[in-house]
Amino acid sequence: MSGRKNIRNFCIIAHIDHGKSTLADRLLDFTGSVNERERQDQLLDNMDLERERGITIKSHAIQMEFTFKGEDYILNLIDTPGHVDFSYEVSRSIAACEGALLVVDAAQSIQAQTISNLYLALENDLEIIPVLNKIDLPSANLEEVTDDIVDLLGCEPEEVIPASAKTGLGIDEILEAIISRIPAPDGDENEPLQALIFDSVYNPFRGVETYFRVINGSIRKGQHIKFVATNKSYFADEVGTLKLNKAPKDKISAGDVGYLITGIKDAREVKVGDTITDSKNPTSNAIEGFEDVKPMVFAGIYPVDTDDYEELRNSMEKLQLNDASLVFTPESSAALGFGFRCGFLGMLHLEIIQERLEREFDMTVITTVPNVSYQAYTKKNPEQVVIVNNPTDLPETSTLEYVEEPYIKATIITKSDFVGNVMSLCIDKRGSITNQTYLTPERVELSFDMPLAEIVFDFYDRLKTVSKGYASFDYHPLGMRKSKLVRVDILLNSQPVDALSALVHADNAYNIGKKMCEKLKELIPRQQFDIPIQAAIGAKIIARETIKALRKDVTAKCYGGDITRKRKLLEKQKKGKKRMRQVGNVEIPQQAFMAVLRLND
Q: Which pLDDT band, with edges at 50, 70 and 90, does 601 fall under?
């Protein structure tokens, strides 16, 4: 096999549900990489959750062999996750490639995420091959969508390959384009080893498997290697290429993609985007673009039964082996007992972790209101930053100088009919519009600067509702900005419930407090005594609702006679209720914690 010039490394860029996993299945079929027995739909999505939801959560890589015009080629498909929460992983996968298939659904045209990942690919100088997918659908709009792609890429209409991943139409052309249009990888085998880690998977028997792309040099079995960012050294127990099952090799050279097993037991030691080099003869320059993945959204996760705390800790540790971007620290709450404050990449990540805890570990958990990470500055020490991941960490109002919150740049692509609805939704969420571009007379791209906290809960669902499903959304962080935030506390029977506290903008505090009280009034069952539900900012009560007591009709036995007899019985009942209220304790049902997130429904 004639070395590097016959290797092609490529990825597939597409919006959710544009047919990325199906196209990968067809490429594997055509190149004979899977036999009849191994074949199944969404072959590279190996988590049940990925199959059910039709999304790629974890990126995968697979090697195909293909003979074209009498020459043997090696094609490395480096799959990327589709969702905006995992954009850093996408950027590392793209950095490991020389080319990308841009897949666009012929019925839905170009969506926000396609564009943002396309810009990533263009920044990395990737060769883009546009593929128009799902052309067999009755609603496919070939000419119009081809024109959209031509406008976006500035390519010729003939370069767009019409295909249908479901029926296998156009797959030959795609393979031919991969070989003829995508350049062979650069790199020098005689340089010191330099390889980019783009993914890692935890194997319970062998530790962490690291997936990498060799940029320069080569990596051998038994070699003494070093990870640059963590500065730790290991021995390469096994290296090999990623067929459907792993294929061990003695050596992997520049330009190729492979896996490495070193017996590492802790997934946090393998960081996506890190550089692997030789520990005796290290490379002088690490690969650019490495960053530690920072959680964007924080929430408390508590076991429903406090006795399960240790079991929950074990489950979280096992999950962290598979998913190094999950961070958690123990915390305790007066209302919920012991639990963890967890950091997630975004709301989808939070949902996935919650679902995996239930499926894989049989843990039923309560999740508190998610919030983002704020920075507070106090009057006493204006230089020092107080990181606020939990509303209870916010310093007292009297000592607080100001608070900063993270802002994002949101890009929304929608049909022109829904521009008004989308704008009013974003302005409700404290967004300010920065740009509005008509991509075609029918479709508009809107850009907003918005606080991250506002899109954390239900923004995506409401965006889909106001645009009848026709809006796509993507965002990236802009940094911290000053903001007027207050903490709204909920008091039940005059006792604060810390798990229901929320940090909100001062202008929205009254509305949110009122809605929370109304919602809790519906959900908390009536007791033998009156329960006041109050929302407070500091010592000031801003809203109140009362859950009326269940009462026995003590005057039923008095008919006729003097009114004082009834009065006496009622007074006696009132005293009993008052005493009960002093010792009474209110149970909060699980739905109450979740309902606070869906105040607008």
A: low
Mean local confidence (pLDDT), 144-173: 77
Contacts for 121-128 with beta carbons within 8 Å, 24 or more apart?
121/11, 121/13, 121/94, 124/94, 124/95, 124/97, 126/94, 126/97, 126/98, 126/99, 126/100, 127/98, 127/99, 127/100, 127/181, 127/182, 127/183, 128/99, 128/100, 128/102, 128/153, 128/155
Nearest to 114 by CA among 12, 9, 8: 12
Residues 6+ apart with CB under 8 A from 61: 76, 77, 78, 79, 198, 199, 211, 242, 257
Distance, in Å, from the CA atom of 208 to the CA atom of 282, rounded to the nearest integer, reads 22
Measure the CA–CA gap between 145 and 443, rounded to whole angstroms: 12
Any residues with CB less than 8 A from the CB of 35 and at least 6 apart, and which?
Answer: none
Q: Which domains does the chain have, with CATH numbers?
A: 3-181 (3.40.50.300), 194-278 (2.40.30.10), 299-368 (3.30.70.870), 374-483 (3.30.70.240), 486-598 (3.30.70.2570)
Residue 2's pLDDT is 46
Beta bridge partners of 197: 212
> What DSSP string describes 156-222?
-GGGSEE-BTTTTBTHHHHHHHHHHHSPPP---TTSPPEEEEEEEEEETTTEEEEEEEEEESEEETT
Residue position matching structure tokens 């564009």: 115
Q: How far apart are CA 333 and CA 338, in angstroms?
A: 6
The residues, ordered by sequence, that sit 6+ positions from 536 with a Cβ below 8 Å of its Cβ are: 488, 489, 490, 491, 496, 513, 542
CA distances from 6 to 29, 31, 185, 203, 223 (A): 20, 15, 9, 31, 26
**Residue 544 — φ and ψ, nearest 5°?**
-150, 140
- Using a pLDDT cut of 90, give the percent of the chain over it: 0
CB proximity list for 496: less than 8 A, separation 6 or greater: 334, 489, 490, 536
Residues 409, 412, 416, 417, Cα dihedral to 10°: -110
Mean pLDDT of 310-320: 82
Between 56 and 419, name the one with better pLDDT. Answer: 419
Task: Give the Cβ contact number of residue 269 at 10 Å.
Answer: 19
Average pLDDT score over residue span 22-42:
65
CA angle centred on 154, ends 149 and 156, rounded to 5°: 80
pLDDT at 322 over 50: yes
| Confidence band for 49, pLDDT divided at 50, 70 and 90 | low
Residue 541 burial (C-beta neighbours within 10 Å; 0-12, 13-18, 19+)? middle
The backbone torsions φ and ψ at residue 70, rounded to the nearest 5 degrees and listed phi first, read 80, 0
The answer to whether 541 and 534 have CB atoms below 8 angstroms apart is yes
Give kind and range of the element (H or E) at residue 476: strand 472-483
The per-residue pLDDT for range 217-241, each reduced to its tens digit, is: 888 888 888 888 778 888 888 888 8
pLDDT of 34 reads: 62
Does residue 45 have a pLDDT over 50?
Answer: no
